[in-house]
Amino acid sequence: MWQHAGHAHAGTCMTSKRLCFEPGHKPKCLVVVDDTAEWDRAVYYASRWAIRAGGGVVMLRIIEPEQQTQEWLGVADIMRAEAQEAAEAALDRAAGRANGIAAITPERVIREGAPMEQLLAVIDEDPEIAMLVLAANPGAEGPGPLVSLLAHALGTFPIPVTIISGALSDQSVDSLS
């Protein structure tokens, strides 16, 4: 159980050593591809970072499970298949963007479950992940669901987190990455 400031999150503690800069390993940047308008900024930054660090990019799409009752299980299976297809399409778009930016083919991961639990599990399972990159919505409605959720955990998060403003242009990100 991972604990932070009185909040328990199901998942594993970070017990694996980060190997990202050890001989024979390469650092990877983890980026979450979600349905927000600003996901592209995170992918852009992560791709530029990969060029400079000589590393790679891992793109994660999290499917949140629907509540289901016994009589709706057939519908749930159809919804799960549709969510899987949507996840693949989103990762196709993001991978195409990363390839266009940095001529890289990112790793693709699709997980189903609670976002924080899945995020921590992916980090724990891949000791080459050196950093998480998220993009924040610049609008008045707030930074976005994952950035908001993560804000409560930053003090104990197992790897560095970079949050990019969704308002930054490609040229601005270029000068920062």
UniProtKB/TrEMBL annotation:
It comes from the Bacteria. Residues 28-164 form the UspA domain. Pfam families: Usp. SUPFAM superfamilies: Adenine nucleotide alpha hydrolases-like. InterPro entries: Rossmann-like_a/b/a_fold, UspA. This is Universal stress protein. It comes from Bradyrhizobium amphicarpaeae.
